[in-house]
Write a structure and sequence with these properties.
This protein has 254 residues and is α/β, with parallel strands linked by helices. The protein has eleven helices and seven strands. It has a seven-stranded parallel sheet with strand order 3-2-1-4-5-6-7, sandwiched between helices.
């Protein structure tokens, strides 16, 4: 059985992934702000450094898999927190843990979003993210809307994954992403209660082709498969697990 780490593992999609991996008898380290094996704030450099140190202390032989699932939604204020957690928190840990994953020829699954491909991504914001300019990205997005920060940040995360897939797999580490659609969690419930975003979210849920919102287990099954040897020829891919929304909205793009 393998050794895995899931950030954001105390609740929502992250908790679903942890449960799914443990069903397969894997050892899973959870990371979150609280109620986790490793407590860390991935919005800060110090928190990220502590997270990496905690993983290495708990798993000195390396990792079979890593899922940087910790994230915050478009309703969170200040908006500048969104890129810090969702993009820089995920990317910095994934980069740092490459040697630990290479020890066991492990794999990584990033958590993107189907909203990453809804509309044209803000090129300035995306460029600042991909260039690693955290201060610039936070300053630029501060007066924009939360959905831009969230969706376009997830687009940049997917691009980062694809740009680095060949480099990672040269060390024996496959990297892919799952792009969830609307999944019922405490995070999305909070967004649904937002007076500005709530009505748009309700309409979005109503339009899901399969006729229901997702649940964390839906995403967990996809993540577990991408981490497994059954997906050994899958590298640099984005798997949409969104009830058919991306196909409906972008039927001629893939």
């Amino acid at each position: 059985m393998g050794i895995y780490c899931v950030t954001g593992g105390a609740s929502g999609i992250g908790a679903g992934i942890v449960a799914r991996l443990r069903e397969n008898q894997h050892d899973v380290l959870t990371m979150d702000l609280r109620d986790a094996d490793i407590k860390a704030d991935l919005a800060t450099d110090d928190g990220r450094a502590n997270a990496i140190a905690g993983i290495r202390e708990a798993a000195p032989a390396g990792l079979d898999g890593f899922v940087p699932c910790a994230g915050i939604g478009p309703h969170v204020q200040p908006i500048s927190l969104i890129p810090s957690v969702n993009f820089f928190g995920a990317v910095s840990l994934t980069e740092a843990l490459l040697p630990d994953l290479a020890k066991r020829k492990g794999s990584v699954v990033m958590i993107s979003s189907n909203s990453s491909r809804m509309g044209d991504a803000d090129p300035v914001f995306v460029e600042k993210l991909l260039e690693g300019d955290e201060a610039g990205a936070k300053a630029y997005i501060a007066d924009k809307d939360g959905q831009t920060a969230y969706g376009h940040g997830k687009f940049a995360l997917s691009v980062w994954m694809r740009r680095n897939a060949a480099r990672f797999v040269a060390d024996g580490v496959r990297i892919n992403a799952v792009a969830p659609g609307y999944v019922t969690t405490a995070l999305t419930d909070a967004g649904g209660e937002d007076p500005v975003l709530g009505p748009a979210i309700a309409a979005f849920v109503e339009s899901i082709p399969v006729g229901r919102p997702g649940v964390p287990q839906d995403i967990a099954h996809a993540v577990a498969w991408l981490l497994s040897d059954e997906a050994s020829f899958v590298c640099g891919s984005v798997l949409f697990a969104d009830g058919g929304h991306d196909a409906m909205l972008r039927s001629d793009s893939y």
